[in-house]
């Protein structure tokens, strides 16, 4: 099916609209899945990065999560207040702040391990479909990043 010029601006033809709707729907599912952990979705992502990598600088954590410091700092402050992470200046570089999970933050990982299966089940996609979707979204992100890079156009 081809889309004529008149129909190009229909919502149903917009990839960005479909992605936005999927993001909102996933957000609702994650809110439910994370309620018992007392985590928001961004906090969950931060904890996953820390569980995977251990101690990270705030800068590196921001790079992994694609969050700027204005968004990341309040998120980390709330995780620290909840006793899940600790932030401290690097002894090697006073300008750098290190973030690491506390014992309570590490213990939360066991309960959080149930979240991906719950979300996948509620999404109604099998493991192969989820893998394909992740791959396609990763390629899309890489291409959009490249198109947005300085010097392109």
Q: Write down the overall geometry.
A: globular
Q: In the CATH hierarchy, what is the architecture at level 2?
A: Orthogonal Bundle
Quote the beta fraction: 5-15%
Low-confidence stretches: none
> What's the β-strand tally?
3
Total domains = 1
Task: Give a description of the structure.
By secondary structure, this protein is mainly alpha-helical. The protein has helices spanning 15-34, 41-53, 58-65, 69-81, 103-112, 115-123, 127-148, and strands at residues 56-57, 85-89, 97-101. The chain has one domain (11-146): Orthogonal Bundle (Arc Repressor Mutant, subunit A), CATH 1.10.10. Strands 1-3-2 form a three-stranded antiparallel sheet. Helix 1 crosses helix 6 and helix 2 (41-53) crosses helix 5 (103-112). It is globular and about 60 Å long. It starts with 14 loop residues before the first helix and ends in a 5-residue tail after the last helix.
In terms of topology, how is this protein built?
Elements (H helix, E strand, L loop, with lengths): L14 H20 L6 H13 L2 E2 H8 L3 H13 L3 E5 L7 E5 L1 H10 L2 H9 L3 H22 L5
Antiparallel strand pairs: 1-3, 2-3
Helix pairs in contact: 1-6, 2-5
Can you give keywords for this protein?
8% strand, Arc Repressor Mutant, subunit A, mainly alpha, single chain, 153 residues
């Amino acid at each position: 099916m081809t889309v004529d010029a008149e129909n190009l601006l229909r919502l149903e033809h917009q990839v960005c609209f479909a992605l936005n709707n999927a993001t909102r729907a996933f957000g609702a599912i994650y809110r439910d899945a994370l309620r018992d952990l007392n985590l928001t979705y961004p906090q969950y992502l931060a904890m996953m990065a820390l569980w995977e990598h251990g101690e990270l600088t705030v800068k590196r954590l921001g790079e992994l999560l694609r969050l700027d410091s204005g968004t990341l700092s309040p998120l980390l402050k709330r995780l620290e207040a909840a006793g899940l992470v600790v932030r401290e200046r690097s002894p090697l570089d006073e300008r750098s702040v290190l973030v690491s999970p506390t014992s309570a933050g590490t213990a939360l990982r066991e309960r959080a391990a149930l979240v991906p299966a719950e979300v996948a089940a509620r999404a109604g996609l099998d493991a192969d479909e989820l893998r394909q979707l992740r791959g396609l979204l990763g390629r899309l992100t890489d291409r959009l990043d490249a198109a947005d890079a300085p010097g392109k156009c």
